[in-house]
Design brief:
The complex is a heterodimer of chains A (about 500) and B (about 160). Chain A contains 17 helices and 23 strands. By secondary structure, chain A is α+β, with helices and mostly antiparallel strands. In chain B, strand 6 and strand 7 form a beta hairpin.
Chain lengths: ~500, ~160
Amino acid sequence: MFRRVLIANRGEIAIRVAQTARAMGIRCIGVYSEADRAALHRTVMDESREIGGPLPAQSYLNIDAIVRAATEARADAIHPGYGFLSENPEFATRCAEAGIVFVGPSPEAMAVTGDKVAARRAMKEASVHVTAGVDRVLRGVEEARAVASEIGYPVLFKATAGGGGIGMSRVDRPSDLSKAFETSRSVARTNFGNPDLFLEKYLRKARHIEVQVLLGDHGTGLGFVERECSVQRRHQKLVEETPSPAVGPSLRKRLIDVAVRGLRAVGYRNAGTVEFLFHEGRFTFNEVNARLQVEHPITEMVTGVDLVRQQFRIAAGEAIEVSSNDVRRRGHAIECRLNAEDPLRQFLPSPGRIVAFRPPSGPGIRVDAGVAAGSLVPAFYDPLIAKLIVHGRTRADAVRRMQSSADAFEVRGIPTNLPFHRSLLSERHFRRGELWTTMVADLRIAERLRTRGPWEERVAALAAALVESGRLASGPTYALEKPQPSAWSLAGRKERFAGGAHAVPARRRW
Amino acid sequence: MRFRLVVDGEPHEIEANRGAKGIRVRVDGAEYRGQVRRSGEMFLVRIGPKRHRVRFEAREAWIDEAHYPIAISGIQDERGPRSETAPSGGTSLQVRAPMPGRVVRVFAEAGMRVKRGQTLVVLEAMKMQNEIPAPRDGTVREVAVVEGESITADRLVVVLAAG
């Protein structure tokens, strides 16, 4: 097994990976950008290194700086987490050249899965049904028009190098096609440095269903019970659950078989996920995610398997500790992604200082957080600050537990999407398990939100009372620049001075 | 009326307007409608279906059963000078950043005529590109940001002149 791993990521996933690594006796080396000098993930590492400026390109995407840090720190492995360099074949190659094991698939497998057209072709060859569309890069708008009329509108443009919904655009009628083509190309060029597009049939009211796979050496490996990630906004997942309310035992078996077969066909090794669209009783291949995914904890909750541990074992050439014969699923799990986004203002990013952070706890509740009270959420990175994951005996139990946990979760200082989650959880389609990828927009869930939560309502009540009291009319009658300490801390201070039961020594001055 | 209200160490930007049917309060951009009734030292505030009891005591406020240190600053009355929102001449309008972020594109140029909704600059935060549109038709008088610059929320982006 490895002795020292460099975790090339930040936030909750860096902390998550470190937890498992430390439990396996592997020393953790963290990296951070200038903007992350005070970030929480630094505090859980055995040591950490600054790798560059605040922009991702200067730090977390900076291959030279990360490989140098790993070499200097004498790391024998690099775990990339998700996002950033996790699916970058060049990074994996550079790690190998430096004699460091990349915890993930081979660069060759990543090159296939990262090119969406190549991935479609590979899946077809492995007799996996792919969503109707083209298996080549579109050379121009006329070719796109011809293909679109052949497969029928609506269609969806996708970037071959894309990810995270970036560069996708839906076209409902021929007259909108050329504009969408140009927009998608320019977005793809700016974001991925590659303007190439292909197109697929757009499926209305489809479900997003995916299968987590682990593949080891000598043909070992298994697929896990499916995850459903249909609750999305602009192709960004917000809530995931397992199992899917739409999948029964026979369909499940077929999904898992197809996913494992598809990944084997591209020579895949380590953890990966095959995403499908489920539409009118049929599932078709969508894409491969060649990394650990954000929503991996729900699989861990229902199976008890530590996926990061298995990733380390596979990368070190050790055997996977579970097989399809002995993996058991128990109950239902749901994850809500907590983002620094304001659902009352069209999900506008809301970076800033977190003043209070009180996650719920209790049986069947797991919180993977990248922040704590006092953390600064920088504007440079992903808005994900924490994941709330719950387990229940049944879906209804899990939904109820999620509801009480989301109600209890308190984050102050910056707006988060918690009010959105609270509202979604009581929405009747969601409760019935009737999910589709555009449900958030179609049901106008965010638009119907009226409040950020009980704390903000209290502040509003306080402000209203202040205005009505007339205290503000004649100027700042008791305005203070510095807030006074609360009565509790004053009482505590008095007690300390008095040398009471909770007396603590005063800090020494040097 | 606008002011900054610090409750329990957490700052909030407040905008309050009294009307015939009660009071409208915006807390950091989210709007609440309330009714306030005074009962001795106590203010009874109804917001939606919920009732809150508020009482002031020196530099603290009791809200329902808990009390918090509070501080108020930057009070601006509608009747007073609104220096921050309309500076030189009543016809110009300052467009400010709705969030912190990095300026990735600047479309606006001084002297350019723009239509309401037209994108002035693109601001990137948390991997999301957000277009800042012109709030009305007008002429760009000044562009206060450059591409590549990182800016804070509420920073002046563009000054628009009417017409």
